[in-house]
Amino acid sequence: MARFVSEVMNRELVFAHEGSDARAVRELVLAMGITAVPVLDRERRPVGVLSLRDMLDPAPDTTRMTRPAATVPEGTTLEDAGQVLARGDFHHLVVVDADGHAVGMLSTLDVLRGLLGVPARHPATFPHLDPALGVSWTDDEVLAADRLSSAPEGPGVIALVRGGRHVREVPVWVEAAERIHTRLEELLSIPQGESPALAALLAHRDVRYRAAAVPDRAKRARIVEMLRERIGHQPLPPSVDGDPSRR
User: Fold this and answer.
1) pLDDT tens across 62-74, in order?
2) Which domains are seen in the chain, by residue range?
3) Per-residue DSSP letters for 3-39?
4) Strand 92-96 relative to strand 71-73: parallel, antiparallel, unpaired?
5) Per residue in 13-44, pLDDT tens?
6) Sequence-ordered strand ranges (E) for 54-146
7) What pTM did the predictor assign?
8) Residue 58 phi, psi dihedral angles, 5° rounding
């Protein structure tokens, strides 16, 4: 399972500043499909949290945020974060770095999923942007025939992730594909002889996938190369782009 807050928190931080227009904040929260935002000062340090409940003030132009903001460092274990949530009757925690700057938001559902070994999932309104690669990933999802609905059908990049209960989530495989959805379906029935290493990986029940739509073939190749560096030079299959039988 995920062990630390940093593995399940939402890094795409939606926030408000002190003195922000109340109506604008409510509209933002509703539009993003979330239930709370941190209130940050000029240094991006949290001073409070605004929940939908806080915004149900009879006066339309006022809100009353919860002070101070309940925070946890990003290296906090999920068990410890759960204790903070339970003892404080909180539904959200602001995640901070070593300097106290807000770097993410953690919900009770994030913690529960992490403890159960269920992939973290955040609202579709968030782009799941990977700034280093310049792409947006889908949420991690279990690699199973009934869990492929979120995968794009067009060209892009697939990453496989090991995760689950008592297993720290680690990317273990990456490849480019001309048709992401089709390739994921193929992975579910890959024969042992085609790629023993991949077949052995797929035999684990805790394998998950994430995918990014990338139309440009050269960009796909660059992303795969960078991800392989992240994984640590593990043996990987040839790019699907280079195999005519996969087109």
Assistant:
1) 567 888 999 999 9
2) 5-116 (3.10.580.10), 129-246 (3.40.1440.10)
3) -BGGGTSB-S---EETT--HHHHHHHHHHHT-SEEEE
4) parallel
5) 899 988 888 788 888 888 888 889 999 999 99
6) 71-73, 92-96, 102-107, 129-130, 135-136, 141-142
7) 0.65
8) -60, -35
